[in-house]
Amino acid sequence: MIFGTKKPRPIADFDMGLVDGWQWVDTEDARWPDQLAADLGLTGAERQNLSGQLGAVAARVKEIGADRDGAGSLVWIPPQDQARVRCVLSFRLTNPYEGGPGAYEGYLAADEGRREPGRRYDIVQTWRGTAPIGDVVGAYNVITYTDLLEDAPRSEARTLFGVFPTGASQMFEFVFTSDDLDGFTDMVERTSEWVATLTVELEK
After folding, report:
1. Which of 30, 106, 174, 203 could anchor a disulfide with 161, C-beta 3.0 to 4.6 Å?
2. Which residue ranges of the chain lie beneath pLDDT 50?
3. What is the DSSP letter of 84?
4. pLDDT at site 183
5. Are 173 and 91 a contacting pair, CB within 8 Å?
6. For residue 6, what is the DSSP state?
C-alpha cells in the first residue's frame, strides 16, 4: 500500500445473527402492538397483556428517539414464551467515541453508584474485548426505579455495547434491556454472543 493505512470508511450495511423471535418496533402504526400479538396467535388476556407491553415499548422508543435515522429498536418474544417481551434492543450508528474503546469503557463505568430522582444504579460492571469485527466494550447494569406512582420499586437489567469495527469511520451502540431478571439470567452471555455475530459492509 503506497500511502499507508487506508482512510476509515462509513458503514454501508450491517447484520447480526439474532435468534428467532425478534421483531422490529413500529412507532408509527398505533395498531402495531395489538396486530403483532394477534399475529403470534395470542387471544384474550394474553393478547391484551402482550399488546400493552408492546405499546409501552413503542412509546418509550419514540420518547428517547431510538427510531430516528441511524437508530432502531427490536423486541424479543421467544417462540417458547410468547406471552411477554423478554428483551428490548435499541441501537444506533454514530461517530466514534473520542478517545476510542478505553475512553468509552470509562464513560460506561462512570454510572457506578449513580443516583438520580427515581432511579439508582445498583450494579455496574464493564469489560473490554475483541470480536471478528473489531474492538468491543461492554457493560452490565441493574437499575432500580422508585416511581411514586408505582406500588413498589422495579428493577431492569441492561447490557450495553460499544462496537468499533476495524476500518470504519463509525461505531455502533447497542443497548439490551430486560425486566426479566429471574428468567434471563444468562443475559450477559447471550447478548455478548449476538453482538459477536455482527458483520458490516463498508462504503467503497
Report:
1. 174
2. 1
3. S
4. 86
5. yes
6. P
Note the pTM of the prediction, 2 decimals: 0.92
50 & 139 share domain: no
Q: In this structure, are 38 and 134 located in the same domain?
A: no
DSSP state of 9: B
Instruction: Specify if 44 maps to a domain.
Output: yes
Amino acid 2: pLDDT: 54
H or E stretch covering 119? strand 119-131
Residue 59's domain spans which residues?
Answer: 25-69
pLDDT for the residue 1: 46
Question: How far lies 120's CA from each of 3, 142, 155, in Å?
Answer: 50, 9, 10
188 located within any domain: yes
Report the alpha-carbon distance of residue 8 to residue 27 in Å, rounded.
33
Question: 187 and 138 share a domain?
Answer: yes
User: Which helix H or strand E contains 53, and what residues bound it?
Assistant: helix 44-64
